[in-house]
Amino acid sequence: MKQSMADVKGAISASPRQDAWRRLKKNKPAMFGLAVLSVFILLALAAPWITPYSYSGQNLELGASPPSTGHWLGSDLFGRDMLTRILYGSRVSLAVGFIATAVALVIGVAWGATAGYLGGRIDNLMMRFVDILYALPFTVFIILLMVVFGRNIFLLFLVIGAVEWLTMARIVRGQVLHIKQQDFIEAAVSFGLSRFHIIVKHVIPNIIGPVIVYATLTVPNVILLESFLSFLGLGIQPPQSSWGLLIAYGVETMEEYPWLLIFPASVLSLTLFSLNFLGDGLRDAFDVRDGGVREG
Amino acid sequence: MDKRVLTIGLIAVLFTTTSCGIDYETNVADGTRRQVLHVGNGDEPRELDPHIVTGNIEFKLCMALLEGLLSRHPEDLRLMPGVAESWREGDGGKTYLFRLREDAKWSNGDPVVAQDFVFSWQRALLPALGNNYAYMLYYLENAEKFHKGEIKDFAKVGVKALDERTLEVRLENPAPFFLQLLAHQSYYPVHRETIEKFGAADERGTKWTRPGNHVGNGPFKLKEWALNRRIVVEKNDHYWDADAVKLNQVVFYPIQNATTEERMFRAGQLHITNNLPVDKTEYYRKERPEALKIFPYFSTYYYIFNTLSPPLDDIRVRQALTMSIDRKQITEKITKAGQLPAFNFTPPDTNGYTAKARVTYDAERARTLLAEAGYPGGENFPVIELMYNTSEEHRRIAIAIQQMWKINLNVNVTLLNQDWKVYLDKRDSKDYQVARAGWIGDYLDPITFLDLFVSTGGNNDTGWSDKRYDELIAKAATIVEQEKRYALLQEAEAILMTELPVMPIYTYVSKSLVSPDVRGWRPNILDQHPYKYISLTPSQ
């Protein structure tokens, strides 16, 4: 009985999320992006079963060799298998991308929603704090944090996230200021719901669209930021690899051993494209005002 | 806006910029026309003060800005008159009398007088200055005692101005290579008035080395110092041999990255590079052999261990680490420019000296030693940190060695890349565990390598000291006869290669790219190319 009731309800009016999913499925570039990302994530997880080589095992005799049957994507200067290094590198890059973004998301949404909803002096204080952090040159800020807390890969994730949440907080606050004026919030207030309840149950679900879009744009930023930091010696350390680091090293020898640059660069570009497609798709899917896929 | 308009606009912009590129005169073309030499100089110099600096980056600048009593021939390195026009040896090599040339002048027109050298050498020895190279002056009578504060009166030190143009030097013991030292920066004169105008004689880092303040006596004077961008020196008209100086300016660029440097060379931005990327050697051998300059270099590439930092305070650990790297693979597969694997600290055949003591590659023995030190199979061995200054070559060697230690000893190493200045500071303050290092001989004698590691040596950054070693080096300084002296040095090096505060890796070759426009650049094993002798002529 209950079961059929649910079915009926679902058929009559889909929830906003189901609706969004339906719209997303129609968007081919977005689905392509989603598929590519899923494949990369699976490959990253399955790395040890895919390749017989270790990411640090050197073969100086072999040195840099072009793609061959033994090494599908060639080998680097130390004779390390490039496919292996890219696969293991994707673990770092994707993990940084997603974890740091998640950190930014949590802090940014909580901060922005609170500031926006409470308004007044608290809003002022909270947003000026964001402004102050903005004013700090972020490299210096990250270096400082790394110096204080030591070099550690998980810390790196957190630190990057802790820097990236600022923009997120601003976007969220803007959205909340807009939502706050709407009737359903007034209705919730008149029901006597607590502020916390209103923020969590009514405000945040309604700003999820822009937030998701911004998050997908943050991921590539963060992946590139990691490579920059690693290059400075603050991120991950050899013999570990990440896409950014592989590219940075590949550039050094791009004329002699182009495959050392081409493969990691292609993989990174593909990921960034996929994320952008997916981000666009999600934006359109969550945008309820014009129920279809919008032309950019 | 219409997309098409945008596209056309972009294409137009692209075209204008590329066509500009065609008309644009390169640094090299422009420099050759105006006798302005553009050189890559590796990194931002730490200082320009000859009594503070220790690196070859700084030496190249000091060599342009200052001149010692003697100088070197650009090709065969024989000693030639510098500020001194003639000199006489006396008392079996224990005293020297230098006659200074009358026309030697500072860049502000003041004459260079014998008193300038007395002041400069005194300054170099002032304890508070913290001159790492002070030990180079210990050959002067009582200089060591003065430097250590045992005597306060500099008049007792073996250098005296008899008159404005006569300098008398008394040595502690006859040193066969003493005259060579006079061409080294640690014996260079500095301008007393300028130094004292900007601070005390023994104050470090005063503003006297800034453009506008700097006064030197070399063929060039300091014109511009744009931090991390470039240093420009221009011809010094007061220089006594100014007629021989062809270049109007030399521009030094602090380019750390050899790949960037090579691209700049190819794009006509540099006449001479400081280095050459490993992977480009083959290309230049085949395509542009006239620009490629690879020559034997009186220099060793090695790692230093901080012997005060556990677990590296244990001699067995140091031995194990030293024994477990395959130097031949490093020179053949990584550096690839004809470097020789180094199994001892002094380069082979240094003025007739080749060390007998050798370290070997013996992973089996290394594992045993590590086990004896309490880390069987690398168990419980703490993670050690390996520091190098920014350079892709240093990084690659570090990555290879990191892996060799991992495979052979199961020892984990983290790599730390540092800027040249930070790297030098960390070495000086022994704030490191293992660090990359290189030593270029200052003069052609094995002692220039071996006296690094005496307990009091300012460039001994390892914290290692050994009484017997100090004695041997001190004793060798008292002996003139080469065979006996070398026997003592052999014994000293044997101690060094057992105790291993250093881990030799390879003997350098000097590598650089030199534009065919450059004339007067001659290869030599000290890789010193005085700008005084260089001129520029269009090659095509």
Q: What this model shows, in words?
A:
The complex is a heterodimer of chains A (296) and B (540). In chain A, 73% of the residues lie in helices and 0% in strands. Chain A is mainly alpha-helical. Chain A has one domain: MetI-like (MetI-like fold). Chain A is elongated, with a radius of gyration of 23 Å. The two termini of chain A are 45 Å apart. With 540 residues, chain B is α+β, with helices and mostly antiparallel strands. Chain B contains 17 helices and 18 strands. Chain B has helices at residues 3-23, 27-34, 56-65, 114-125, 143-147, 178-181, 192-197, 258-266, 281-287, 315-323, 327-335, 363-372, 392-409, 420-428, 447-450, 467-476, 482-499; strands at residues 36-40, 70-72, 79-81, 84-90, 95-100, 159-163, 166-170, 220-226, 230-235, 249-253, 292-305, 340-341, 384-389, 413-418, 434-440, 502-513, 518-519, 535-536. Chain B has a six-stranded mixed sheet. In chain B, strands 1-10-9-8 form a four-stranded mixed sheet. A four-stranded antiparallel sheet of chain B has the order 4-5-7-6, with helices on one face. In chain B, strand 13, helix 13 and strand 14 form a beta-alpha-beta unit. Chain B starts with a helix and ends with a strand. In chain B, 49% of the residues are buried.
